[in-house]
Specification:
The structure is a homodimer of 376-residue chains. Chain A is α/β, with parallel strands linked by helices. Chain A has 13 helices and twelve strands. In chain A, 39% of the residues lie in helices and 13% in strands.
């Protein structure tokens, strides 16, 4: 029996989410923009999904824009907010962000002449100089709420407040955080928050951007004016319904993060005691419940992954988000890990259903897997 | 029993396409970028879908970029090709294009300083001055292969050849044409061709751009470098598989266009003989098989739509692609129809399964529906 511990890469689709989407893939195939009844029913389903998603993030329905996923949401927020707010051309972000954020910023620099200040990070991935980085011409800050590889959580509510004091907008990539951290937008105070459905049981190709009505953004995909003009194109009704249903499921089970957090700590203790060269990456306490990542100096992360897979444990050597890349993790490099050591990283990421038994088996298998490569 | 004649707005999902997608929504949930077997199987499915789509358009698999739909494909082609080819800032297009094309061009004008020449159209929607519009600084031509409202077909192969002679790139929006016109890229000779899955039995949220390898484009959605860097974000494997399966189905049944074309001509004859004020829009012969659209001077198109719906006939008053808009069709305005008359338009669009009996019923119901509003 395979134990899948790569939920930060992608998750199985929640059967309830798929079931809720099913009518909108079969009999109810209308285009929400059509004036006839078949179209009207699709429009109603979309509105209902939007309201449910809005409730999850504690915003108004008009502040939810459905997209095709987290990468699109990040691009729409960063490029869209930067282009629509000609206050200045200064951006603040961190080198430990997801590629979707880094590449959106690189595009703004290369094509639109923006300048970026990269925040300083300590060895745990925490930002050490946020307020100092703010400038009068800062247009936008983009900082993820939690890191997808090392799990470190940033105090975005506090940073957003500081950013607003100088008049800058604040975007956070919350792709890894849904279901694990409190994403109440009233508490976070950020202007935009990116979400990817396939990280929490909705299908690949589903996503949304929460964009507060005070923040204006240029669309990334222009056309018929769907999604209040922010995201044109016939709406993927089925995946909007699936996404809302997966969010509803998380809202109903929101205490699981504490349980998983305890399992994670036990797992970290087990690994660091069983595996001599294991070193936790990211902050020991200030980390998301479902991510535990390590380096194993001297042992290739890819090799450990294969040995674990033979033993029925499925994990990741870093993130799965850079297509086909064998480069060392840019996140680990950003927090001062050497390129050699970064190549030894292995990430374990859990679901709300992960059990203590599975993690005991994983820790034991990991010890065996690493031992294969360590000469006595 | 409802007779759905709004296939140009959207189509029911082909059950075979949904069935083929099913494993990739359930057990096979891997991220194609993951190094483990679950991820590898997803990557294989994606590659297979890409190869099958490539075969349909007679290109190499690397020339297929999966997107979230036709609007994204149009944006990627137009904005992407224009930004990556700094030869000049002159674009050629027509006011009868889809909103996705018009809005992409408007973005290039507004944000990037491009200039557009709008082609002249005759009363049938045909271009009359193509070669004259070409300039030494023309970077890109975007002209749909067939119009989504009036069905008029443009000779894009001939126009693409002329565009290439001055060094311009040629994009065509083929969103309405899949399954109805020959889209062999070797014959068409265009550089880029946009496709939307939900117009031919694949789900909403599926689409692709065919981009010949000689043409370079800036990505619209930047990130982890998926889809050869042209379209980042975790791939929607299930919808790529569904799209390829729907294309396979069309390839197997490609003679249906002739049958539907004959039905359409009979329908046009029936309508124009039964309904005194009916006037066909678009070219009488040079039109796509599955679209017949009319104006009914003095009678609101929306009102006719409702009367038809009461009689079980589902159609559209113009296109469904401009969200919630009650403006007169920009396509009809572009071919010289007055705003008053444009408000009277009704479009009938057929599938490969539409029957003669259905169209006889539709013509009869239309005569009754229009008669409701005509005082004797």
């Amino acid at each position: 029996m395979t134990i899948y511990l790569d939920h930060a890469a992608t998750t199985p689709v929640n059967p309830e989410a798929l079931q809720a989407a099913w009518p909108w893939l079969t009999n109810e195939f209308g285009n929400p923009s059509s004036s006839h009844e078949i179209g009207n029913r699709a429009a109603s389903a979309l509105n209902d999904a939007r309201s449910r998603a809005a409730k999850f993030f504690n915003v108004r329905p008009a502040e939810i824009t459905f997209t095709s996923g987290g990468t699109e949401s990040d691009n729409l927020a960063i490029v869209g907010l930067a282009l629509a707010n000609p206050r200045g051309k200064h951006i603040i972000s961190a080198k430990s962000e997801h590629e979707a954020v880094l590449a959106s910023i690189e595009f703004l620099e290369r094509v639109h002449g923006f300048e970026t200040s990269w925040l300083e990070l300590d060895e745990f991935g925490q930002v050490t100089n946020f307020v100092d980085a703010l400038r009068p011409d800062t247009t936008l800050v983009s900082l993820m709420i939690s890191n997808n590889e090392i799990g470190t959580v940033h105090p975005v509510a506090q940073f957003a407040e500081a950013a607003h004091e100088v008049g800058a907008l604040f975007h956070t990539d919350a792709v890894q955080a849904v279901g694990w951290l409190d994403l109440d937008m009233q508490k976070l105070g950020v202007d935009a928050l990116s979400v990817s459905g396939h990280k929490f049981g909705a299908p690949k190709g589903s996503g949304l951007l929460v964009l507060r009505s005070r923040a204006h953004a240029e669309a990334l995909i222009h056309g018929g004016g769907q999604e209040s003009g922010l995201r044109s194109g016939t709406e993927n009704v089925a995946w909007a319904v699936a996404l809302a249903t997966a969010l509803d499921g998380l809202a109903a089970a929101n205490l699981e993060a504490d349980r998983v957090s305890k399992l994670r700590d036990e797992f970290i203790t087990a690994v660091t005691s069983k595996v001599p060269n294991a070193k936790l990456t990211g902050h020991p306490l200030n980390r998301q419940a479902n991510i535990a990542s390590f380096t194993f100096a001297g042992v290739s992360g890819e090799a450990v992954l294969l040995e674990l897979e033979r033993r029925g444990i499925v994990v990741s050597s870093g993130s799965a988000c850079a297509a086909g890349s064998n480069d060392p993790s840019h996140v680990l490099l950003a927090i001062g890990v050497s390129a050699d050591v970064a190549q030894t990283s292995v990430r374990f990421s859990f679901s709300h259903h992960t059990t203590a038994e599975e993690l005991q088996k994983a820790a034991q298998s990991l010890a065996e897997a690493v031992a294969v490569f360590i000469k006595p």
